Structure formats: structure tokens, C-alpha cells
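Fold it.
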Amino acid sequence: MDRTALRTFAALAPFLLLTACAGSQPTTKVTADHITGNWTGPHGEKFTFAADRTFTASGLDSKNLADEMCTGKPSNGGWAFYVAESKNTDISDKTAKSGSWIGLSFHGAAENCRIDLAVVDGGKALCATDDPAVPCGLDVKFTKES
């Protein structure tokens, strides 16, 4: 490799690494009280989380969620934080008071919807994901309504 190519590579390397890591986002642990309320997504997706660990949802058939077998019609279910059961196993636990990942269990026509939510941006947003290794894997970020 000649000097010019080496300098070019050295200058570009930090940007390439930053781009490669852009899909990964740190999660934030929050309390259940922080989750309760109305959350909206960028394309009309909506969740309302209640303190009794139930939720209602609508608009979950948007482009980025279409492959997850979610429905656009109003649906409901239960939610819980994931907790570590063992070194390599997490389970959703309705009694957990806080967490950074939310397991969703849909009822009725939406029971095949397979998404979870990761708490990101310091607790300011919830990201839809179908992969525990990628918090914002489905590229749909919900923000809480004031």
C-alpha cells in the first residue's frame, strides 16, 4: 500500500467504524411509571401503556413493522420488563419494577405480532425490535406524548 492510500485509509477509518456502529444503541433502565402513558411512532403507530401492565396499540402495520405480522387495527395485550433468569436467558416478568427491555404479549387478531421494545435515548424513546442484539432493529422509534 502506498503512502497516499495509507493516509486515506487512516483518515476514513474512524468514519467507517462510526457508520458500522450506528445501528447499535445503548438501552436505559427506567421504572414502570415511566412507561405508562401514550407513545407514538413516526408513521401513525401508537401504544398506550397502563400501570396494570396492559396496553392498547394501533397502526402497527406500518412499512417497517409489516413483516412482523402486526395489525393496523386496534389491538391489546400485556407488557412486562425482561429480567435475567440465568446468564443467557431473559424472561418477561410482570412484577419487575424497572427494566430497559419490554416484552409484549398481543391478544386476539394480533397474537402473532412479534415485536419487543427497547428503552433508548436516556428513556425518551422506545424502539421496536425483533432482535435482542439490536435495540432499534425495526427502525421504528416511539416517543411519549406530553
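Confidence is low (pLDDT under 50) at residues 1-22.
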